[in-house]
Amino acid sequence: xxxALVALLGGVLALDGTSVGQFMLSRxxxxxxxxxxxxxxxxxxxxxxxxxxxxxxxSFPSGGARFPEGTTATVVxxxxxxxxxxxxxxxxxxxxxxxxxxxxxxxxxxxxxxxxFIVPEPADSRADSAxxxxxxxGAVGLDFLRGALITGTGVAIGRMLVARVGAxxxxxxxxxxxxxxxxxAVSVGILLHDLGGxxxxxxxxxxxxxxxxxxxxxx
Amino acid sequence: MSALSRRAVTSxxxxxxxxxxxxxxxxxxxxxxxxxMLPGLRRIFEGDPEGLDASVRRHLDHFNAHPYLANVxxxxxxxxxxDGTDEQTVRRxxxxxxxxxxxxxxxLVWAAWLPTVSMxxxxxxxxxxxxxxxVGLFLVVYNAGHLALRIWGFRIGLRDxxxxxxxxxxxxxxxxxxxxxxxxxxLVGVLAGVVLAGREGLSDAGPLWIVPAVVCFVAGLxxxxxxxxxxxxxxxxxxxxxxxxxxxx
Lengths: 219, 249
Fold this sequence. Notes:
B: mainly alpha
């Protein structure tokens, strides 16, 4: 029952990624907290959402680009971590989430190819308003099913993995978190690169860095 | 525009939220665009089903733009149809605006607004704010900008029709994007500082962890997006190897 509910949540949130609204309910930071709330641990949900958001800060649904799907990745990661209170639950959930983001990305590409067969050809004289509406809403329905299927499969695999190896994880929580943050530092660098590079933004970056360090000391 | 009722206009605007619902590599937003136009077209071609179908087919053509700024084209196309503009002019207009609306939207929203609000939310979480406040602030602030852009785009399109390009250039959205990017650059620094020194940050685990993090940061800074996949693969591999090592112990 819980797996079905999580899969449904994954399907609904995945719709927000591209097909419906793009209110950013699909971003890891929101999807993580919502999944955590649903499964009774919003703090863990937001922690995982925050970590995956750090990785996926530079991933957005731009045009025809292939991008890792953060939504299903986050729902899968949170549902994986919540199922186990072992030391390895968090890092294994993040690893599963990062892998599943790629799987989700491939499934989006496959759906977009399939949509090409569903939508009516502009040159087709039989294309009328009813056919357009059926094709369009049908494609939205397929996206929901895709999200639910990817989420459900990911959670089943993730929970199996964490049940097998979670308890024997040899690192402490601080070291596990640091390992994840080291990888995420790449995204922070990419973001600064996209914003114009270090040379162009060094003053603002340095000012922000100092503000961050000082802010942490006082807050 | 006299042919358009408030209800048809509102319905078209609401449908714009699903404009990417049937995104495909052939016509991209084409089908979604035609579907969103339907309430307005039904009103314009009331009592003329053949005219309606012909008009729907016109809008099925290949079209792509940023989903929020697609509203500019949607409003303008509705205005052109209501004014009885000829088919070729409507097609030429859509072809002319799709590139700029895509580039401008990507630069303003995906490359500036979204990362800025995301980084602000992440920073607030690292500073210890409660879950509901972090998520609530992220959604409210992001969507204030999102909805303002959608409503403004649709309104200027509907008002100005094919002259909307002038209104767009006067709005100086590119300059607005640059200003937001400056704030984002400041927030990248704040986030780096907070992740380094904050609770559950890198320094908590010991200074040795800071060295590989700096190496990764510099790799991302120098190589850009090509560094993302190797970093993700390395993280997953490292976690898998450590888990395997734990099983062997």
